[in-house]
Amino acid sequence: MSLSFEGRVVLVTGAGGGLGREYALAFAERGASVIVNDLGADTKGGGKSSAAADKVVEEIRAKGGKAVANYDSVEDGEKLIQTALDAFGRIDVVVNNAGILRDRSFARTSDLDWDLIQRVHLRGSFLVTRAAWNHMKNQKFGRIIMTASAAGIYGNFGQANYSAAKLGLLGLANTLAIEGHKYNIHCNTIAPVAGSRLTETVMPPDLVASLKPEYVAPLVLWLCHEQCQENGGLFEVGAGWIGKLRWERTQGYIVRQKNQSMKPESIRDHWEKICDFTDATKPANIQESLQSMVSVLSQVESQGDVGVNPAAAAASAGLGSGIDPTKAVGQKLPPTTFSFNHTQCILYALGVGMSTKDPDHLRFLYEGHPDFSCLPTFGVIPSQAAMMDGGLSSVPGLNIDFTQVLHGEQYLELYKPLPTSVNTYSGNELVCYNQFSVFVVGAGGFGGKRSSEKAKPPVRPPKRSPDAVVIDSTTRDQAALYRLSGDWNPLHIDPSFAAMGGFKAPILHGLCSFGFAARHVLKQFADNDPSRFKAIKVRFVKPVMPGQSLQTEMWKEGNRVHIQCKVKETDAVVLAGAYVDLHGASGASPENLSQGGGLQSELVFAEIGRRIKDVGSELVKKVNAVFGWEITKDGKKAAQWTIDLKSGSGSLHKGPYGGKADVTMTVSDEDFMEVVQGKLNPQKAFFSGKLKVRGNIMLSQKLEVILKDYAKL
């Protein structure tokens, strides 16, 4: 399906020619209303003319598009945005493209050469974007493009002024991406290579002619579309090629020792290690950047002479840290046995949020159920017990401070469905395989690589809307309940212990969130059949506080379901790079897969269900009706929901409903989301045939009470 900008208002600065003209024409061709801004100055910033902007507006209008001209300088940012508001009533997209050149070698650069470049490129982009910012915040949508340059990224002779301004734009864009994220304002930066008035001074004529602006414009359109979730990216683009850039950093080397001064000679002696990009890290934000500094402070204070090699580790042993790498490296945990019965299986299921309120959960909670089963993720419990119950403490050289322990990643693979009771562990029969990635802050000095080839890597989810979303509330006592399965770390129950670890309150176990997400996948895509579970991998990103709601987003691709888990209240990602691998279902049909997930509307009904629990009695008084929903996908019925706001405190039912609905609505999953998000008027949907209504049609007028006031999407 082609990308449309119908209804969007786009401002392009410096749009009288070159790249800006191409952007303006491309946006207009796809339905956008365009403000064509151009001062009409020459490449050095001199002169002024309305001809360039007027000509582009005429081109757009001649093709049936909508456009107006603006002739103000970008330093008058408010005037540019006011033109958009006066002509079209809103502003959705700002493409900061205007620029000039005043190339000089650094020694010959005057104050005017410097100031003019900063005013047009950096200050101009700031002023235009600031003028649009609050309008974008209020409408909860905005897309911003900053135009950097290879000169800013790499430097270029004779362009010190230009290079500084262009890299300054990248810093501005990165901060706007952070501040605008919660308002659905995305800001990205491009470093284009295209033939224009500005590049013809630094490129051969034949190259200028070959690098056409139309090879850049499609990237700008994609980054500005509502479907694109890219934010804070930096892209080089030209000649039909696009590449994304990111920072890379060496592992570095600690060159100071506790209670000793840091000397340049030590830096000289370790310069090769400092500059060695083997196993380089790729910090993505300031928190990740500072993490290593905090770790260094801890290592130096706790171990004294700390380095990344075994010799330095040996020198640091026995200085009070409790960690002696020379003794610990190469050790193996002793063999252990683990016995469990149906009680532990049920307790674990309760710990990861299963409830008798959901009939589907009974097979994991009632030992008398004909299909009584153990949740697949219970497989982490025996291996965790092996580590926690004396296993790690038996390893020489390890005396771990559990306030400094961070669970980084987890991989679990089952070789067969877990039994509901095991009395002894048979070394000849592998039941499951676990990988734990655990970080202990301050416990460095082990040497070797920071990653293992044996470790299962995280995998990013597809860049599209999730196929299914499930929202589940944890309880205030979730951590207190989960710890009964064997993770006795006081970090999850004792406020004073949590404070020592830097947390305001005890946090939920990462493996508890892990269990929530896994069972969401099992229900959505495997009909709660444990035998279909093969493996799961997650990266733990941020902690969850007991009582918060977990939102699991799922993308199904073959037998792999990619997952990302967020805290619903804060939108913070807590599980990333995660996936569940399933065994194929025998006799699975497209209809069954559709019923099991893949509907965006699942998110809406889940939220409606939550609101009914909170304010159901109030809704019953306002609405007093039973609504039936039939959601279709690809022309076939994919899901059925009933919202009962007539009896008791209200209720939500999925699937067949025993009672009779007062009004039943049939609509596709896609059109339902358009209605909920206010993009499709329900009356227009009805008259166009997209929304079919049976029963008391007048009751449909009360839908706004349910969808708008209480869905809160």
TrEMBL record:
Residues 8-181 form the Ketoreductase domain. Pathway: Lipid metabolism; fatty acid beta-oxidation. Its main location: other. InterPro entries: HotDog_dom_sf, KR_dom, MaoC-like_dom, MFE-2_N, NAD(P)-bd_dom_sf, Peroxisomal_Beta-Oxidation, Sc_DH/Rdtase_CS, SCP2_sterol-bd_dom. Keywords: Fatty acid metabolism, Isomerase, Lipid metabolism, Lyase, NAD, Oxidoreductase, Peroxisome. The keyword Aminoacyl-tRNA synthetase does not apply. SMART domains: PKS_KR. GO terms for biological process: fatty acid beta-oxidation. Residues 448-468 are annotated as: Disordered. It comes from the Eukaryota. CDD domains: HDE_HSD, hydroxyacyl-CoA-like_DH_SDR_c-like. One of its GO terms (molecular function) is isomerase activity. SUPFAM superfamilies: NAD(P)-binding Rossmann-fold domains (SSF51735), SCP-like (SSF55718), Thioesterase/thiol ester dehydrase-isomerase (SSF54637). PROSITE patterns: ADH_SHORT. It is found in: Peroxisome. One of its GO terms (cellular component) is peroxisome. Belongs to the short-chain dehydrogenases/reductases (SDR) family. This is Peroxisomal multifunctional enzyme type 2. It comes from Pundamilia nyererei.
